[in-house]
């Protein structure tokens, strides 16, 4: 792994954490900004995003999703369905957490 990739991965980890912290603090706009930056870095370096980050960010509006706060989570047919307040929802296989 090149040093550049290692640095990018570390930045992704840190930005993802910042997004979560901002969302928890109720700063939705700042959380979205972090989410976008995280995605941009991952794209630029063709890195995959941490799974929890992928699950708990909205692909439509870039919100960092906190179940019970700005997202609803339910299960159906062996899938987890996460619905963002913007109305967008994503389905994941139940076991693939
Ligand atoms: Zn959304």
Automatic annotation (TrEMBL):
<comment type="subunit">
    <text>Consists of a catalytic RNA component and at least 4-5 protein subunits.</text>
</comment>
<feature type="binding site">
    <location>
        <position position="58"/>
    </location>
    <ligand>
        <name>Zn(2+)</name>
    </ligand>
</feature>
<dbReference type="GO" id="GO:0008270">
    <property type="term" value="F:zinc ion binding"/>
</dbReference>
<dbReference type="GO" id="GO:0001682">
    <property type="term" value="P:tRNA 5'-leader removal"/>
</dbReference>
<feature type="binding site">
    <location>
        <position position="61"/>
    </location>
    <ligand>
        <name>Zn(2+)</name>
    </ligand>
</feature>
<comment type="function">
    <text>Part of ribonuclease P, a protein complex that generates mature tRNA molecules by cleaving their 5'-ends.</text>
</comment>
<comment type="similarity">
    <text>Belongs to the eukaryotic/archaeal RNase P protein component 4 family.</text>
</comment>
<keyword id="KW-0862">Zinc</keyword>
<dbReference type="InterPro" id="IPR016432">
    <property type="entry name" value="RNP4"/>
</dbReference>
<keyword id="KW-0540">Nuclease</keyword>
<dbReference type="GO" id="GO:0030677">
    <property type="term" value="C:ribonuclease P complex"/>
</dbReference>
<keyword id="KW-0378">Hydrolase</keyword>
<dbReference type="Pfam" id="PF04032">
    <property type="entry name" value="Rpr2"/>
</dbReference>
<keyword id="KW-0255">Endonuclease</keyword>
<keyword id="KW-0819">tRNA processing</keyword>
<dbReference type="InterPro" id="IPR007175">
    <property type="entry name" value="Rpr2/Snm1/Rpp21"/>
</dbReference>
<dbReference type="GO" id="GO:0005737">
    <property type="term" value="C:cytoplasm"/>
</dbReference>
<keyword id="KW-0479">Metal-binding</keyword>
<feature type="binding site">
    <location>
        <position position="86"/>
    </location>
    <ligand>
        <name>Zn(2+)</name>
    </ligand>
</feature>
<keyword id="KW-0963">Cytoplasm</keyword>
<protein>
    <recommendedName>
        <fullName>Ribonuclease P protein component 4</fullName>
        <ecNumber>3.1.26.5</ecNumber>
    </recommendedName>
</protein>
<feature type="binding site">
    <location>
        <position position="84"/>
    </location>
    <ligand>
        <name>Zn(2+)</name>
    </ligand>
</feature>
<dbReference type="GO" id="GO:0004526">
    <property type="term" value="F:ribonuclease P activity"/>
</dbReference>
């Amino acid at each position: 792994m090149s040093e550049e990739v290692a640095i990018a991965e570390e930045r992704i980890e840190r930005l993802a954490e910042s997004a979560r912290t901002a969302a928890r603090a109720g700063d939705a706009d700042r959380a979205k900004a972090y989410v976008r930056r995280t995605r941009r870095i991952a794209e630029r370096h063709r890195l995959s995003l941490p799974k929890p980050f992928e699950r708990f960010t909205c692909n439509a509006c870039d919100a960092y999703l906190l179940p019970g706060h700005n997202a609803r989570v339910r299960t159906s047919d062996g899938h987890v369905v996460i619905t963002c307040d913007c109305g967008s929802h994503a389905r994941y296989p139940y076991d693939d957490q």
